[in-house]
Amino acid sequence: MLELASVTGRDVLFDIGCGDGRIVITAARRYGTRGIGIDIDKAMIRDSERNAAAAGVERLVKFIGMDATKADISEATVVSLYLLPESNSLMRPILETQLRPKSRVICHNYEIPGWEERKVLTETVEDENGEKHYIYLYVR
Ligand SMILES: C[S@@+](CC[C@H](N)C(=O)[O-])C[C@H]1O[C@@H](n2cnc3c(N)ncnc32)[C@H](O)[C@@H]1O
Questions:
Q1: 48 domain-assigned
Q2: N or C: which end of the chain has fewer CB within 10 A?
Q3: How many domains are contained in the chain?
Q4: Residue 9 alpha carbon to ligand 1 centre in Å
Q5: What distance in Å separates the CA atoms of residue 78 and residue 100, rounded to the nearest whole number?
Q6: Whose Cα sits closest to atom 12 in ligand 1?
Q7: Whose CA is nearest to atom 6 of ligand 1?
Q8: Which residue of 16, 84, 88, 90 sits with most ligand 1 atoms within 8 Å of its CB, as the best mutation to test the pocket?
Q9: pTM above 0.90, yes or no
């Protein structure tokens, strides 16, 4: 996802539904990207903070425990999503109103309903177990 969105150290990456923080932590380690992870599950936020400290990137990343549909994501240049289509639909209004033009949105497995005309790339990636993952890149 990071490669397909061409994430660099100049980006500000928001991961919506950050789980254990792996996406923003990987971007911080690989590219020095500043990242914000948001998850509604506070236990995942604590895991993310522990993982960021273990990876030595705590100065580059921040994790927020809240419902992402109410978040301020206006600083983002890249947003990553691995949520069900219903949740992607719930995120759509804030993606449309808060993101600056040319911001990239990268989705794992599930598309953003209604954003067909913004889609610039669909890629199928196979993991080490032979399982297929679908990645969709959009430009706001
Ligand atoms: C499939 S996991 C993705 C985890 C991580 N981004 C990854 O790729 O490994 C989805 C995460 O989204 C979170 N989530 C679901 N709805 C949310 C919402 N409205 N606001 C914030 N987080 C949400 C869940 O708690 C869960 O941790």
A1: yes
A2: C
A3: 1
A4: 24
A5: 10
A6: 17
A7: 18
A8: 16
A9: yes
